[in-house]
Amino acid sequence: MMKRNYLLFFILSSILLIALSFSTQAQEVTSPNPALKVWKQVLGSHARYPLSDLRARKTGFVSVDIELDQEGKISSYEITESKTEAMKESVEAALEKAIPLWQPDMLPEEERKDSYEIYFSFEMVDPQNPNAEIEAVTRQIYKGKPEKALKMTERLVDEKPFEPKYLELRSQIHRKLQHEAEATADLMESQRLQQNTLAKIEIKSFTIVQTRSISGTINR
Description:
The chain is α+β, with helices and mostly antiparallel strands. It has helices spanning 2-29, 34-45, 51-55, 85-98, 132-142, 146-159, 164-176, 180-196; strands at residues 60-68, 74-82, 115-124, 197-206, 209-215. The chain is globular, with a radius of gyration of 19 Å.
């Protein structure tokens, strides 16, 4: 019976992980403009995990507001939040390299809004279990403890407020608890992020090895 329950839990966890990651994967697969994808890769390639933060085992994110002029050129940017000064400096260096390469036609004319957001995430990941946090949440749901799962998910949202999959997960838990207003608010914020995020650069450190993954909005 225990083996059967464990197998069922494993299957449910796998389905949830696939569902939560689908929107991010679709952003890359459906991107119609290869130039924009290359630009994001350039942006990500110049962002480095600060050595001082690695030594101190500090994680966090940097958020950037990008302003576009009427022609679709990047007119300015502002770093609105940063966990450490070293992370801010790393992001500034990446932006200074990438912004001169920006071309207005990387975005369709109907999508050239006044502003977009870019997020840089710096995190340390266990290479043996990179999805440990979401698996821990799904374990509590499987045990019939949605209140505990909600508290765990709220911590994930606090750590990565720019991550749609955590908002979608929290929305599902709110719905299970019949918190309809909160569930709807999380879904709306998730949709807003997907529409307004130009790029999301994830810089992950597996001990001394660093990797980067890059995504943007779902319709790009």
